[in-house]
Amino acid sequence: MRPDNPTQGRVALPPTPGMPGGETARRSDWATLQRLLPYLWRYKWRVMFALGFMVAAKVANVSVPLLLKELVDAMTIPPGSTQALLVVPVALLLAYGALRLSTSLFTELRELVFAKATEGATRSIALEVFGHLHALSLRFHLERQTGGMTRDIERGTRGVQSLISYSLYSIVPTLIEVAMVLALLGTRFDMGYVVITLVALVVYVAFTVVVTEWRTQFRREMNELESSSQTRAIDSLLNYETVKYFNNEAFEARRYDEALERLRRARLKSQSTLSLLNTGQQLVIAVALVLMLWRATQGVADGTLTLGDLVMINAFMIQLYIPLGFLGVLYREIKQSLTDLDKMFVLLEKEREVADAPGALPLRLQGPPAVRFEDVRFAYEPARPILHGISFEIPAGQTVAVVGPSGSGKSTLARLLYRFYDTQEGRITIDGQDIRQVTQGSVREAIGIVPQDTVLFNDSIEYNILYGRPDAGHDAAVAAAQAAHIRDFIERLPQGWRTVVGERGLKLSGGEKQRVAIARTLLKNPPILIFDEATSALDSANERAIQGEIRSAARNKTTLVIAHRLSTVVDAHQIIVLEHGHIVERGTHAELVARGGVYAQMWKLQQSDNPADGNQVA
After folding, report:
1. DSSP assignment, residue 169?
2. What is the pLDDT of residues 300-316, one digit of tens each?
3. Is residue 418 within 8 Å of residue 612, measured between CB atoms?
4. How remote is the C-alpha of 608 from its chain's centroid?
5. What structural domains does the chain harbor?
6. pTM for this structure?
7. Are 577 and 589 in contact (CB under 8 A)?
8. Which residues face 403 on adjacent strands?
9. Are 148 and 13 in contact (CB under 8 A)?
10. How far apart are CA 248 and CA 237, in angstroms?
């Protein structure tokens, strides 16, 4: 009996908002199968042909013991019948070999015909899950546990293949073979053989189901602990620098070892119960085999059965033992695959917090649009409001800057404009079109952003710049890099444009990452631009140089600038000062300085810290 596969089974989902402890309702196995069937129904003709080959393979397989009986009986011939000895066994041997070959041939044809269906269904589900995860809101991705979620997807994808294979190629063939063997035993011999086989089958199945259901709790615990240890390891590795900063390698190793120790104990418990299950199954099979052979041996001794009959019964039982012995593994694997698949379907069915309205049309723009925030109220959590009735306009082709202390809601404005979240009250319009009434894709296509925290793909610098417009080509990437003042740096690198930036771009400095982000946004060249602390990681010389390029890029574009460093926003057409989610001042730089209010105090503080260009607001 094969051992349990430790990569299969129930896993822990990331906590789900609105459900205690992140628990999700477990659907029935039949409901999970129904959820899978539409993916297979696309290949219905392949399924039918595969089932036909499967039945043919089983018919050939069951015919082998019958032919073996004839072969043994044919050897019992009168003395001197040399011709029969030479001709009959040779013909039977050839037929025996042909049946054996047919069994393998039909089995391989079945696999060949249905391989496209299996791989196609797996691909369709995996792609749908991938697309759905990208469609989920930012809230989901901020709350997810990457290690656990990737295990869900990995196990679920593998579960599709296992479930299809075991369901279509093991359950039905096993039932066909058992039915054919019972029919042959009942017609060729007395019903005692059928009774022994049926009783053994019922006891075997009942024992397997009861013990496997009991084992499920240990199996579930093992897989939850496996996901937990995986999540802990990945989280620690993603925070490699933080671990080093605080010299906590030993602490992380202890935490990981604690998780591994709990996993070890759970695996031992699962393995011991598996051994109990396997031993019980073998006992049932052994008792049934002894009873059948004892009865057949008595028949041969009494002269009611031939030696060939004894060999045939023995072959039937051995042949039946294989699928019967596989039932235990089959049941466990199907249960585990169903659970794995259900977890992936739970991810697939997770509701999108931000979705396109029914019948939403693309955003229609003619030139630089005007952007309006109208009495916008928003809270990430009900008990902690972030924006309190924010209203302002960014006129077409102009630049509006939003400044204020950390936590005042500045970056939230950019997230709402991108529709990472929807407003609880009020609305945001682009050229008079409520962004909730148009497609998200068209809104995001019209906006380019240089975020405060730049994250790059673990690929080449050229790939990351071209991500702004993947079909732009190398020359366009070079021009964008030139505008972002990073071309010289790239071309001095040993691998130049092919330099891989590492996971999340960690091989580059903060300033270098920020310039790559500026380059890809300039390459996208959208009508609306957002600069969220776009130069915060740059030195003063590069900042002044890039500010000139940003001003040039923002010309004739509708631009929202979010900043702490006030020197970056002095040329804005309007400056809005946020405090605790409220607009406390608005006006040009000169007007706000002359007013002597909050902005003037911030400006004075920065000028006193660094008269050359100011510093970040405390």
Report:
1. I
2. 777 777 777 777 777 77
3. no
4. 52
5. 20-348 (1.20.1560.10), 358-446+528-534+554-618 (3.40.50.300), 449-525 (3.40.50.300)
6. 0.60
7. no
8. 563, 577
9. yes
10. 12
